[in-house]
Amino acid sequence: MGSPSESVAEKNQGKPRGIVLIEKLKKTSVSFNTYQAVVLIVTFFAYASFHATRKTTSIVKSALDPESGAKSTKLLLQLGNGWAPFNGPDGTSLLGELDVAFLFVYAIGMYFSGHVGDRMDLRLFLTAGMVGTGVFTALFGVGYWGNVHIFYYFLIVQMMAGLFQSTGWPSVVAVVGNWFGKKKRGLIMGIWNAHTSVGNITGSLVASALLKYGWGWSTAVPGLGIAFIGLMVFLFLPVSPESVGANNDEEEEECSPKKDGEEISEPLLRSDKEGVESAVGFIEAWKIPGVAPFALCLFFAKLVAYTFLYWLPFYINHTAIDGRYLSDEESGNLSTLFDVGGVVGGILAGHISDHLNARAITAASFMYCAIPALFFYRSYGNISMTMNIILMLITGMFVNGPYALITTAVSADLGTHSSLKGNARALATVTAIIDGTGSIGAAIGPLLTGYISAKSWNAVFTMLMAAALVAGLLLTRLVVSEVATKIQESRSCPGPPPVEV
What we know:
501 residues, mainly alpha, Growth Hormone, Chain: A
């Protein structure tokens, strides 16, 4: 047997250097709960920085292409001459092609990232992705100082940024899933998923504020920001309890009754931690009950969400609100309210799904409610600023609620599904399949919007409402299953357990 000093050195070998330094300063080991807090904080800021860099493109669109959709001479004078090649008659279409290039590579990269993420150190994998994202986001802005007007330069930079961005989501969901069980997972991950909206809001405000100094700063500064946070991930992120030798003294108890032959009645909320820990294959992960319908649902849900992510500031900038056109900065700032509604929607969807023990019912209900919300925002959002703000908040809540729920709690549930017989090394793969499929829809939505919006924004919103309807319908089988389970439980159980007060 080795000496005590050798045991401590071996135990610290898997710990991030920042955690080791903290333990040396405190002269005591970090507790399990502290590790959980560190995981939530570090992954929150990590993915918020991903979205902050992703949001920059939507903010600089009006600076690159001021003429497309402009309805008044006053607005054209206000926006300036733009940036070639995006200030020509096909400028809006070119911007749409940048979006689809980014998102298509992001979606394809997501499948590979999940596969690789389940087979290597997620801390190193995530750090490399963040630094790479920072480099290529900043390189987009270098086109401003380098006076670059070659479309393919921006196209290649966006594609490389999308490739590195694809490392983010499978990594952070897998890490959080390693540290948290299913108890209140919907609520915890709903609150944690606010990083998406916080990142969007931060990216919008920073990019909008920097536009007056030149649009290059609007991409370069967020790029440097994510690279710095990537360094923090390398120093402080513990990937799993096993990797740092942490033990949970308060193991989560399974309180829900188990029924014989129960396979699909609780398709999402059952997990098992015992078994052989070998990474799950891509095809095997697709066969997990619930993965395919939720992945296809997210295809259409992200089509709607990412159309707003990439085009809402542009839409606001070229739509008169109470007879007045807003500036680039004002449009970018106003668009952040969509993400404020998204924060509320994500938390609400997570809490409701935990309370009802029904992820599919919650997600489908939100998607159906998004349809009238989209209609009212398009029809009445231009009446006044107050009406625009209220309708934007409501739309953001219903659009981002199911998107947040599926990409967090649902992905984590399915990644630890009972059919895996306890194998927890499927989290990144399952997350990548669901979000990768959704990201294909996220690529198609902004691309179509680039072409359709040049002719009619009404047609764009019709497309979004149709996508929301299809997203809800794709969950019909799971909704019916959850409803049947509720009926069965109400018949077999004499009554609800007493509520603790």
